[in-house]
Each structure stands twice: as structure tokens, then as C-alpha cells.
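Run log // design_07
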């Protein structure tokens, strides 16, 4: 598939992602994993008469694992992953941007079966009053293709800002479902620590995962990973091996996004409560019971 992509030729608008994760490397997201497993055969076309699934929108907190999940979808389906770069799409000449988009989508059809990852899709199709209708034409081109495309191309769109997405994009028939990726619960945080410790050749059994999970309440997966990375630097500087104390001290020093941007995170969670499907089964009962607004933002004074 890599050779096929290189033979087709590309100009940077759509790129071939070589590193596609497996869902075994993604903690949580149990409901999303189940949803995809039910549609695996229908997408690959192996012994199924069911309608082909078209795609999903992953909405959630920044650093919550949406991009990793997009890669994992391709790994789960066992197909190539193409990433559509909206930043490289735009051209100053009239009509060229829409042409670039059509060309990128044609490449996706030629690479089928495949997954097309549209990262931060709102940046490419959000309406702007000073672009002379360009964003609307791009949106129209994309919506038409999503409606009429018959190739085995599965779309995974990710977004951090739901307010900038047009309603036409989210209606049934263009995308199958909208999943909300929330902050991980205690069990999932423990799994995330396990994953990142193993990736750095450290045995999770040598750490108190329950204590680390409790200390990292409100942290995203990306923030937990960075806590592990920073703790390793601290241990290296002290010429010692990494232990629980290094990690707990780093977690205590870190103010997660759920605290720093508590108002925006709360608004996003509140919006998603009755409008999206929770990506994890535990979220069905607990996702909306514990608002983040009770957390305290600690002011830091900086002298320049």
C-alpha cells in the first residue's frame, strides 16, 4: 500500500501515516472499540451484506487521545491511514483550494480500503466572514463527496471546538456517530501509566499504580505521558532510577488542562452530555456526575 501511494503521487495535502496504533495501545474507549468491532466486517466487505460504515467524529478534551484513537481505527481495520492536512489545502488562487481537496479525496478513493483522518476539521471548514466564501465552497465540496462516495473510505474526523462545526457535517448519513472522548477515570489512568512505563522499558509492577491514578485525577492521557517523561528526566539528573516519588512529585507540580481551562472544559462536557455518545462504558453512569468546576486554580506569579 505504501508503494501504491507513492506511485499515485501526492503534493502534501494528503499524507500516508506509517505509524498506525493498535487498540491494545489505547487505554479506555471501550464503547468506541465495541462499536468498531461490530462494523469491521461490513467495512472490509468480507462476508457482510450490511451497509458500509462511513465514519465518525471524535470530539473531546485536548490531549484526551482522539488522534491516537484515529490511528488505532486504521490499525483495527487493518487498512492504510491517510491524513488530510487542511493547512496545506488552501491556495490563494480562485478555485485551486477546492481542486486540491477533490484531488486529495480522489487519492483516498484510489487507496481504498483506507481510513482518512481529518484532524481538527473545524480549522478547515469553519465559516469565516473574510474569506469570500472559500470555507463554504470547501465545505460544500467535502459534504458532496461524503454523501456520494461509494469507495471503502472510512472518515475519522477529530475536533476540539464543536461550536465552529456546521450542522450539515454532523447529520446522519454523512457521519455515522459522534463520540465524546472525556477525561479518563481512575481505572483508565492506571492503564495509561502501564502503557507509558512499558514503552520506556519499565515494569509497571514496580510502581503503585493505584496511588499514581489517584494523584492524576483530572489529567488527560497526554498529560500523564508528559509526567512520566519529566519524571524520567528528574531521576536521570539525580542519577537514580525512576520510582513512585518522582512521579508523584511531578504530578503535584502539574496543573492539568482541566484546571487551567476549567470553564471551557466544563462547557464542552456539558454540551456533549445529551448530544454525543460517550466513548467509554464507564462514562454512561459517571461522566456527568462530577463537574470540574470544584477544582481550585492556583495563581502563579512570575517576575520578568
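design_07 sequence
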Amino acid at each position: 500500500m505504501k508503494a501504491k501511494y507513492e506511485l499515485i503521487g501526492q503534493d502534501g495535502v494528503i499524507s500516508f501515516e506509517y505509524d498506525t496504533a493498535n487498540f491494545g495501545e489505547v487505554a479506555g474507549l471501550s464503547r468506541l472499540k465495541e462499536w468498531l468491532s461490530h462494523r469491521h466486517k461490513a467495512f472490509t466487505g468480507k462476508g457482510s451484506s450490511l451497509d458500509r460504515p462511513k465514519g465518525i467524529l471524535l470530539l473531546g478534551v485536548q490531549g484526551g487521545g482522539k488522534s491516537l484513537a484515529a490511528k488505532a481505527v486504521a490499525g483495527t481495520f487493518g487498512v492504510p491511514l491517510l491524513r488530510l492536512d487542511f493547512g496545506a489545502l488552501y491556495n490563494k488562487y480562485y478555485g485551486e483550494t477546492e481542486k486540491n481537496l477533490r484531488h486529495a479525496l480522489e487519492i483516498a478513493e484510489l487507496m481504498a480500503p483506507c481510513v482518512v483522518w481529518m484532524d481538527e476539521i473545524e480549522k478547515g471548514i469553519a465559516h469565516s466572514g473574510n474569506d469570500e466564501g472559500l470555507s463554504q465552497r470547501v465545505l460544500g465540496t467535502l459534504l458532496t463527496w461524503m454523501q456520494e462516495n461509494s469507495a471503502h473510505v472510512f472518515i475519522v474526523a477529530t475536533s476540539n471546538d464543536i461550536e465552529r462545526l456546521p450542522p450539515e457535517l454532523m447529520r446522519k448519513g454523512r457521519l455515522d456517530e459522534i463520540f465524546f472522548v472525556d477525561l479518563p477515570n481512575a481505572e483508565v489512568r492506571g492503564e495509561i501509566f502501564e502503557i507509558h512505563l512499558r514503552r520506556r522499558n519499565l515494569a509497571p509492577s514496580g510502581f503503585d499504580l493505584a496511588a499514581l491514578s489517584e494523584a492524576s485525577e483530572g489529567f488527560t492521557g497526554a498529560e500523564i505521558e508528559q509526567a512520566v517523561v519529566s519524571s524520567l528526566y528528574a531521576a536521570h539528573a539525580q542519577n537514580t532510577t525512576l520510582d513512585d516519588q518522582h512521579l508523584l512529585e511531578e504530578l503535584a507540580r502539574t496543573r492539568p488542562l482541566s484546571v487551567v481551562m476549567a470553564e471551557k472544559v466544563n462547557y464542552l462536557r456539558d454540551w456533549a452530555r445529551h448530544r454525543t455518545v460517550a466513548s467509554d462504558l464507564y462514562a454512561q453512569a459517571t461522566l456527568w456526575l462530577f463537574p470540574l468546576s470544584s477544582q481550585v486554580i492556583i495563581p502563579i506569579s512570575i517576575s520578568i
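DSSP finds 15 helices and seven strands in the chain.
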